[in-house]
């Protein structure tokens, strides 16, 4: 089978497509024929040598997320059969074998069945973006542990960067859970995408005062803020409701206007989906799977997240596109659906 491998970290040209043996299937494992491998910023970071540390050294096959078809199941596996359409998560975290190959063998827990009418493009967009979004929406101490219809009813959620993959997922999941969703963007084109995702109101932070606009739309302020840029924290604290939560899923050093935050009893939480607890991850996977199978999670330009496709031989170009902050979800076509 073909696999894209890097033997040392570096720029995109360290990725080489090679022939490898078909991975065996042990007890409790599932082998998946990958149709689409998705590329996230942490995937390019791992390839470049600056990703999330997991103790695994090259040679490695990158990419955490993907969708495909069950090829073979191991002893003791239940709930899946060969031919089932599935999505996978954290394929390359703590393991040398991600989804940028024709077949990958994974523990049963990390292979999630999806309905036959769910496009592979949807399945490839889950994993890191959707599971990150779920944790950001549930991390508040007074929030639900697991999203479901009505779980965020009566709450206002502000999603920073609504045209990104995590932002898009947060908008769709929050709407499915019953929240009023506001979001921020930097251009008219991205505003159109965020609206297509289902946001109730879109704020162009380059042209509008964020806090003033949030207070106009939600006089009490936002109960939950999903934040991708720590430079926004001062405005976030102005915009948040008393007792509200800001969930931050981006790294970097920053300062906090702590007295303003204290006055509102604001809480800040930091989210990295790789290192959430098993219970938190299981809740996220179950909720995302339910939303997907209910038709509440979509992709494509009509859903606010354009799909940017690359062939297997263009794996390096796909990684470069993510590093260049292309708008949309980058996927690599590995095999026929």
What key phrases describe this protein's structure?
337 residues; Quinone Oxidoreductase, Chain A, domain 1; Rossmann fold; 28% helix; globular; alpha/beta; 2 domains; six-stranded parallel beta sheet; seven-stranded mixed beta sheet
Can you walk me through this structure?
The protein is α/β, with parallel strands linked by helices. It has 2 domains: 2-125 and 305-333, Quinone Oxidoreductase, Chain A, domain 1 (Alpha-Beta Complex), CATH 3.90.180; 131-274, NAD(P)-binding Rossmann-like Domain (Rossmann fold, 3-Layer(aba) Sandwich). The protein contains 10 helices and 15 strands. The chain has helices spanning 41-48, 120-124, 128-138, 165-176, 188-197, 210-217, 233-239, 258-264, 278-293, 315-323, and strands at 2-5, 16-19, 29-39, 65-73, 85-88, 103-107, 111-113, 156-160, 180-185, 201-204, 222-227, 240-248, 267-270, 307-311, 329-333. The strands form 3 sheets. Strands 3, 4, 5, 6, 7, 14 and 15 form a 7-stranded mixed beta sheet that branches. It has a 6-stranded parallel beta sheet with strand order 10-9-8-11-12-13, sandwiched between helices. Strands 1-2 form a two-stranded antiparallel ribbon. α5 (188-197) links the parallel β9 (180-185) and β10. α3 packs across α4 (165-176) and α6 runs parallel beside α7. The longest helix is centred in the last third of the chain and has 16 residues, at 278-293. The mean pLDDT is 97.
């Amino acid at each position: 089978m073909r696999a894209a491998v890097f033997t040392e970290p570096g720029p995109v040209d360290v990725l080489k497509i090679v022939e490898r043996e078909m991975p065996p299937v042990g007890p409790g494992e599932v082998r998946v024929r990958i149709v689409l491998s998705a590329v996230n910023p942490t995937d390019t970071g791992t390839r470049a040598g600056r990703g999330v540390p997991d103790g695994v050294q090259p040679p490695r096959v990158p990419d955490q997320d993907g969708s495909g078809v069950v090829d073979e199941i191991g002893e003791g596996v239940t709930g899946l059969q060969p031919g089932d359409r599935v999505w996978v998560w954290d394929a390359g975290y703590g393991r040398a074998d991600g989804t940028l190959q024709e077949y990958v063998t994974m523990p049963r827990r990390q292979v999630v069945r999806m309905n036959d009418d769910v496009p592979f493009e949807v399945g490839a967009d889950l994993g890191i973006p959707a599971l990150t979004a779920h944790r950001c929406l549930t991390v508040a101490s007074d929030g639900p542990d697991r999203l479901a219809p009505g779980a965020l009813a009566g709450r206002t959620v502000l999603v920073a960067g609504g045209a990104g993959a995590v932002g898009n997922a947060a908008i769709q999941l929050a709407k499915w859970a019953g929240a009023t969703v506001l979001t921020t963007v930097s251009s008219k084109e991205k505003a159109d995408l965020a609206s297509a995702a289902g946001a109730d109101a879109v704020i162009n932070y380059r042209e509008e005062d964020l806090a003033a606009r949030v207070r106009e739309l939600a006089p009490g302020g936002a109960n939950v803020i999903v934040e991708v840029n720590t430079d926004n924290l001062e405005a976030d604290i102005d915009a948040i409701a008393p007792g509200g939560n800001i969930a931050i899923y981006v790294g970097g050093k920053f300062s906090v206007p702590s007295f303003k935050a204290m006055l509102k009893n604001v809480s800040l939480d930091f989210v990295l989906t790789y290192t959430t607890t098993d219970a938190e991850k299981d809740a996220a996977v179950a909720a995302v799977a339910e939303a997907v199978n209910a038709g509440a999670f979509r992709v494509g330009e009509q859903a606010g997240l354009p799909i940017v496709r690359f062939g297997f031989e263009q794996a390096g170009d796909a990684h470069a596109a993510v590093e260049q902050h292309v708008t949309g979800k980058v996927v690599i076509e590995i095999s026929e659906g």
